Amino acid sequence: MSDYRIQGETGEWEVVIGLEVHAQISTNAKLFSGASTEFGAEPNTQVSLVDAAMPGMLPVPNRECVRQAVRTGMALGANINKYSRFDRKNYFYADLPQGYQISQLYHPIVGEGQITVSLDDKDPDAPTKSIGVERIHIEQDAGKLMHDQHPTMSYVDLNRSGVALMEIVSKPDMASPAEAGAYVRKLRAILRYVGSCDGNMEQGSMRADVNVSVRKPGYELGTRTETKNVNSVRFVQAVIEQEAKRQVELIEGGGTVVQETRLYDPDRNETRSMRSKEDAHDYRYFPDPDLLPLELDDDFLAECRASLPELPDAKQARYESVLGLTPYNAATLIADADTARWFEALMAEGARIQGKDEKDVATASANWLLGELYGALNRLGLSLADSPVSPERGAELIALVADGTISGSIAKQVFEIMLETGDPAAKVVADKGLKQTSDTGAIEAVVAKVLADNADKVAQYKDGKEALFGFFVGQTMKAMQGKANPQVINEILKAKLA
């Protein structure tokens, strides 16, 4: 799909990219304890005896974490392994109180799947690419070191210790920053639809380890580096661009790329070495003796599958084929699960009020949501969740336009008043006297005056300058303060100018 290349002194270089995305599982409790996972708590206030690795404490798997990992795998069309096992990954670090991390190296809960991405979701003709998912395994997060609380010491916050993560490992199928960005966005959308992760990268509940290598086109894979804990789509793309350029310059300068772990500095837009890359044997993995293997039965898998919602690709196809939305509107609406849910609530209310064709209601709802409502929210600095106008109130406003009570231009005025006051549309229309008139006698009188006042333009129109018709409509609407029914104006003008 991508023809992205790095231009070096010796010619072109390809980039090979794989991502390991750590997604915090959306549960109220940790992977092996009942401690809270709420974001933003005071340090060390959400730590159980298990999380702190007190002697004699035994882990007990959180069933919901297992369920959410399975549902995520199903949403990616991946193989679900009925048998999986927890392993201990042994290393010492100050924020790892056990001295090991419980993970799944040898027998992960989810096997191979794939994600199909497009570099332009809003263009139905844009090429797509399937990116393989190697595996998803469940593991516990470590704590966090706090270096800015004391001039000479670092403090340890164990609130995140034991938080459940899904590590979603892609195959090295991406070949450009744009493809990697599309993959992360699509994966985040799927996780949000499924409800297995909130996808808030800025809060650390989803972050990516970015594996990058370069090679001459057609050559063997080069040595890769891994840049840890990248927390935005923009930074993922920047890491790939900068790290690929660094590797090309290093190789062309006679150096050798070392397999290592690196960190990204967004202020300098550069990666820097953190430590040499360890292999699996360095961690002395072995099966965790405190945890039995996970064995999933058919009833559990059936329940997981039945609980899945309509996923983004299926929803977009339905919006286009059944609801008749444009590819652009459909892609914009499905890009975020909350937006899609808001749209469907808006549409359901609109259909209830109007009793009209589903396609007409869907088109009017999509145009208003993506145009008027989004524009107002952006201006006010609000999210859709904080909208002062609910789907029910929005549907009422759209219905007043559809049934001819108010015109589209008046609807904009009504909406602004709704944003300020919170009043329903019908009340605003009644209080402000904004109801549209379809009184043919009144409209005919105004049309007659407009034509009389613009006799020269009437003559030009009759000589073939048909674009002036819009001028006459506008003048009539202006004279009637936007309260005239545009359809009635058009019919009367056509008759008068014939």
TrEMBL record:
It comes from the Bacteria. Keywords: ATP-binding, Ligase, Nucleotide-binding, Protein biosynthesis, Transferase. Its EC number is 6.3.5.-. Residues 341-497 form the Asn/Gln amidotransferase domain. It catalyses: L-aspartyl-tRNA(Asn) + L-glutamine + ATP + H2O = L-asparaginyl-tRNA(Asn) + L-glutamate + ADP + phosphate + 2 H(+); L-glutamyl-tRNA(Gln) + L-glutamine + ATP + H2O = L-glutaminyl-tRNA(Gln) + L-glutamate + ADP + phosphate + H(+). The keyword Ligase applies. One of its GO terms (molecular function) is asparaginyl-tRNA synthase (glutamine-hydrolyzing) activity. InterPro entries: Asn/Gln-tRNA_amidoTrfase_suB/E, Asn/Gln-tRNA_Trfase_suB/E_cat, Asn/Gln_amidotransferase, Asn/Gln_tRNA_amidoTrase-B-like, GatB, GatB_C_1, GatB_Yqey_C_2, Gln-tRNA_amidoTrfase_suB_CS. Pfam families: GatB_N (PF02934), GatB_Yqey (PF02637). Heterotrimer of A, B and C subunits. Belongs to the GatB/GatE family. GatB subfamily. Allows the formation of correctly charged Asn-tRNA(Asn) or Gln-tRNA(Gln) through the transamidation of misacylated Asp-tRNA(Asn) or Glu-tRNA(Gln) in organisms which lack either or both of asparaginyl-tRNA or glutaminyl-tRNA synthetases. The reaction takes place in the presence of glutamine and ATP through an activated phospho-Asp-tRNA(Asn) or phospho-Glu-tRNA(Gln). This is Aspartyl/glutamyl-tRNA(Asn/Gln) amidotransferase subunit B. It comes from Flavisphingopyxis soli. The gene is gatB.
